[in-house]
Recover the amino acids of this structure.
């Protein structure tokens, strides 16, 4: 039987930094499409970059477009995934089997600076229309969703965004895909650092991800029992601020505390500005304070660690798998709604819904952050 190209399919891509839950979302989107909606899903390799590569290869040529459709049809599922020359793959049940708990994304993710060019986006739109794609689902963080918004504004295609970033810096949703898993990973890491900190009576300064938001450090600190959380929201840290933080740690040591875990988000800034990692800046400031003349603990050691991309990997938590399924369900309902348009899936007060691109920040998020900071201060006093 000759394979046929799936007309009227839905395409999905993953863009920017990866986050746990992306594979779970892909599985849910594909299975809901095949099982419930009876619509095929085209997976795009390497995010926007894959669309740009393919649009450049086709370059508006009708015969090249027919050849592409035939290649997609003849390489479904895993056959397409292992063919690294093919950037659009017709997904099937087998291709998403066993991936729900795996971190990363089997389709790959990449940043694509070329996509900032409106002419490049126009060629991508032409490609998607030539392939008779009925909707494009874009999974990623702020930059990726900005690209999705531009596509929605510049075409009549239905473009659905899905928030996926461990930073949790998208203020229109309570939670993005990957945050829960990243928090669990950080708690696991803190547990291990506590063992050595306690043994050597040390202060461990651990740098987490979170460029614009301190939510990841905030949640991990509350869940792990870290003694101190430093986030970007209050503004740049001065030398006097760092001395106060060091004095707080020293005070706890004076009252019998044997170690300290400090979580600092990578988005924290300093005044005057510093080029080094935050953990190392704080290490030097704390060490200098502890070794000042007459200090009670001149031998107190500070050890920094930048946890980095460890936070993006690992087995996806049940909570993220559930959120992925709910986001996929919401995306399909929006795609299938006759009067529906483009928008972004969002979790708001435990309800998953579609919100328009450009939805204002939820003021509750800022209130929640302040309340969590105060709660942590109350819990961590020694």
């Amino acid at each position: 039987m000759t394979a046929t190209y799936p007309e009227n399919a839905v395409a999905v891509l993953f863009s920017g930094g990866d986050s746990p839950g992306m594979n779970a979302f892909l599985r849910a989107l594909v299975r809901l499409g095949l099982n419930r909606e009876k619509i095929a899903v085209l997976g795009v390799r390497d995010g926007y970059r894959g669309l740009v590569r393919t649009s450049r290869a086709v370059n508006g040529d009708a015969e090249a477009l027919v050849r592409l459709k035939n290649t997609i049809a003849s390489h479904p599922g895993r056959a397409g995934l292992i063919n690294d020359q093919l950037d659009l793959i017709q997904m099937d049940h087998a291709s998403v089997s066993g991936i729900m708990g795996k971190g990363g994304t089997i389709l790959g993710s990449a940043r694509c600076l070329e996509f900032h060019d409106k002419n490049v986006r126009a060629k991508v739109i032409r490609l998607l229309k030539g392939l008779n794609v009925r909707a494009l689902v874009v999974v990623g963080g702020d930059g990726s969703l900005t690209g999705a918004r531009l596509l929605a504004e510049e075409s009549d295609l239905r473009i659905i965004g899905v928030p996926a970033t461990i930073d949790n810096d998208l203020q229109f949703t309570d939670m993005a895909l990957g945050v829960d898993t990243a928090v669990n990973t950080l708690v696991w890491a803190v547990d291990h650092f506590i063992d050595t900190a306690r043994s050597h009576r040390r202060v461990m300064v651990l740098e987490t991800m979170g460029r614009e938001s301190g939510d990841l450090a905030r949640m991990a600190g509350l869940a792990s029992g870290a003694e101190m959380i430093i986030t970007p929201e209050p503004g740049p840290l001065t030398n006097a601020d760092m001395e106060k933080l060091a004095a707080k740690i020293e005070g706890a040591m004076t009252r019998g505390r044997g170690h300290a875990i400090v979580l600092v988000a990578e988005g924290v800034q300093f005044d005057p500005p510093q080029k080094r990692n935050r953990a190392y800046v704080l290490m030097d400031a704390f060490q200098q304070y502890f070794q000042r003349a007459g200090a009670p603990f001149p031998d107190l050691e500070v050890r920094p660690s930048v946890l980095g991309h460890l936070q993006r990997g690992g087995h996806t938590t049940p909570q993220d798998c559930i959120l992925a399924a709910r986001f996929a369900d919401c995306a399909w309902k929006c795609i299938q709604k006759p009067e529906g348009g483009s928008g972004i899936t969002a979790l708001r007060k435990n309800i998953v819904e579609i919100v328009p691109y450009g939805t204002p920040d939820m003021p509750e998020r800022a209130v929640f952050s302040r309340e969590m900071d105060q709660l942590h201060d109350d819990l961590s006093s020694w």
Observations:
- The two ends are 73 Å apart (CA to CA).
- The chain is about 45% helix and 15% strand.
- The chain has two domains: 10-177+316-360, 180-311.
- Residues 95 and 247 are 55 Å apart (CA to CA).
